[in-house]
């Protein structure tokens, strides 16, 4: 192959035509391409080069009219060389030794450059690929896409007296629905909807006044039992996921608890993005009973101070179009944040988190074309989660202070959210 590349003249167009039989014009043997200006076999190519270099002069032992074939081509060098020249082989096409060497050097240099490029190409280490595979599997084991367990929760109840906050959310939501259906399903419709949604949020804010200010002392929260069970279930799954993150189980029990208590709600918000639907701004977890809109969550005691930024967060996250690998890495990075309150072995957790961040950055470089800014955007999402967490804690606290509501919560929810480490 290399010899051909070195000594062959530019290939003729015929060479690319598979239908043209490649026959040596000198002897009729199978040709390997154009050599010194004619289609020949390797044997005749070598013969011509040697003859020209030696400046050989041959004499035909017969009558100078031998027919050259594959089998007899060695018998008469004179007629073979004459045939070479007759069909147009030219000694000018033979490279000098220096030219051959230069070509070989060039080929070698190209190979080395290619090897250098290959070495620089971003790649995932074996360990990083392994960690990612573990996290993806951990997520599959703890996130049931059929949502079949939801039927075991206390059932969702959407009727009941409408609170002021809930009615605002309802009008907000129905307006958002109307605007989206009139816009149709063009590719930009999602963006348009988000824009409309933002306008609606602003309208809501312009309305003035605090939504809870004039609310009845203790509104009936019809969705609280169901959503408390859903959150409790999700906490269990987050704990299951955390335990499978490489290194998590080796932390002290105290640190494991500190990390879980402070990050559980953030990881729940992250994982819920999988069911979040940009079309109607709801979380769709199976049938209509388990499709949750903003209004439903207000009926579990949360106000728009949490739900507005939460929905914005869900929209922004959804639009990053994360690969599953990136999604699970983000959850693990969130869980292993060393700056959580109550954490003792700060350095060790930081090391684990750094390892995950490196894996995420490497993954994006290798597998996410055009993802140059993706890592930064993902880290921004973690910052957004901190403020959502803060608002959630605030609202949870005021809810749990009311015994008729806190009695609806599960022991796990009370344990994880109940005594916020501060
Ligand atoms: Zn030949
Ligand atoms: Zn002859």
Please give a structural write-up:
The chain has 422 residues and is mainly α. The chain has two domains: 13-89, Erythroid Transcription Factor GATA-1, Chain A (2-Layer Sandwich); 126-418, Retinoid X Receptor. 57% of the residues lie in helices and 3% in strands. It is built from 16 helices and five strands. The protein has helices at residues 2-7, 42-54, 77-86, 97-120, 126-142, 164-183, 189-206, 224-244, 253-271, 294-298, 304-319, 324-335, 346-367, 374-400, 403-406, 411-418; strands at 33-35, 38-40, 276-277, 282-284, 291-292. The strands form two sheets. It has a three-stranded antiparallel beta sheet. A hairpin with a 6-residue loop joins β4 (282-284) and β5. α5 packs across α12, α9 crosses α14 and α11 packs antiparallel against α14. The protein is rod-shaped and about 120 Å long. The relative contact order is 0.09. Residues 1-15 and 166-217 have low confidence and may be disordered. One zinc ion binds next to α3.
Please name the CATH topology of the largest domain: Retinoid X Receptor
> How many DSSP E strands?
5
Class inferred from helices and paired strands: mainly alpha
Please give the oligomerization state of what you see.
single chain
How would you name the CATH homologous superfamily of the largest domain?
Answer: Retinoid X Receptor
Global morphology: rod-shaped
Instruction: Give the percentage of residues in beta strands.
Output: under 5%
Distance between the termini: 72 Å
Nearest-angstrom radius of gyration? 37 Å
Number of discrete domains:
2
Instruction: Tell me the major beta sheet.
Output: 3 strands, antiparallel
Give the distinct bound molecules.
Answer: zinc ion
- Mean of the pLDDT scores? 84
Spatial arrangement of strands, main beta sheet = 3-4-5
Low-confidence runs (pLDDT<50, min 5 residues)? 1-15, 166-217
List the secondary-structure elements in sequence, H or E: HEEHHHHHHHHEEEHHHHHHH
Query: Tell me, what is the CATH class of the largest domain?
Result: Mainly Alpha
InterPro entries: DBD_VDR, NHR-like_dom_sf, Nucl_hrmn_rcpt_lig-bd, Nuclear_hormone_rcpt_NR1, Nuclear_hrmn_rcpt, VitD_rcpt, Znf_hrmn_rcpt, Znf_NHR/GATA
Keywords: Cytoplasm, DNA-binding, Metal-binding, Nucleus, Receptor, Transcription, Transcription regulation, Zinc, Zinc-finger
Pfam family, one: Hormone_recep
Protein name: Vitamin D receptor
């Amino acid at each position: 192959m290399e010899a051909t590349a070195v000594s062959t003249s530019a290939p003729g167009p015929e060479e690319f035509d598979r239908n043209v039989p490649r026959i040596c014009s000198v002897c009729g043997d199978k040709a390997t391409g154009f050599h010194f200006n004619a289609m020949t076999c390797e044997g005749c190519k070598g013969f011509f080069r040697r003859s020209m270099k030696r400046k050989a002069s041959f004499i035909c032992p017969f009558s100078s009219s031998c027919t050259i074939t594959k089998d007899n081509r060695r018998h008469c060098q004179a007629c073979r060389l004459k045939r070479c020249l007759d069909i147009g082989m030219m000694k000018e096409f033979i490279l000098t030794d220096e030219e051959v060497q230069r070509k070989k050097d060039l080929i070698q240099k190209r190979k080395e450059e290619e090897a250098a490029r290959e070495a620089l190409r971003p790649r995932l280490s074996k360990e990083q690929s392994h960690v990612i595979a573990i996290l993806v599997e951990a997520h599959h084991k703890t996130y049931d896409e059929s949502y079949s367990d939801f039927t075991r929760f206390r059932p969702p109840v959407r009727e009941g007296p409408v609170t002021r906050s809930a009615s605002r959310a309802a009008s907000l939501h129905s307006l958002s629905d109307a605007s989206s259906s009139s816009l149709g399903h063009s590719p930009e419709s999602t963006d348009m909807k988000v824009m409309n949604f933002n306008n609606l949020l602003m309208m809501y804010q312009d309305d003035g006044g605090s939504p809870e200010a004039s609310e009845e002392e203790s509104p009936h929260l019809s969705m609280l039992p169901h959503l408390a069970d859903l959150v409790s279930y999700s906490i269990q799954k987050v704990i299951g996921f955390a335990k499978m993150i490489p290194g998590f189980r080796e932390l002290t029990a105290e640190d494991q608890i500190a990390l879980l208590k402070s990050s559980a709600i953030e990881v729940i918000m992250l994982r819920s993005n999988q069911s979040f639907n940009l079309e109607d701004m709801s979380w769709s977890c199976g049938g209509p009973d388990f499709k949750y809109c903003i209004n439903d969550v207000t009926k579990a005691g949360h106000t728009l101070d949490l739900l507005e930024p939460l929905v914005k967060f869900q929209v922004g996250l959804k639009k990053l179009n994360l690969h599953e690998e990136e999604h699970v890495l983000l959850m693990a990075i969130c869980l292993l944040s060393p700056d959580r309150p109550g954490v003792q072995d700060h350095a060790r957790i930081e090391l684990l988190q750094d390892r995950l961040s490196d894996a995420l950055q490497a993954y994006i470089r290798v597998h996410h074309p055009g993802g140059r800014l993706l890592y930064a955007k993902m880290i921004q999402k973690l910052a957004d989660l901190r403020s959502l967490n803060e608002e959630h804690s605030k609202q949870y606290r005021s809810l749990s202070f009311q015994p008729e509501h806190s009695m609806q919560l599960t022991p796990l929810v009370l344990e994880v959210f109940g005594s916020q480490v501060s």
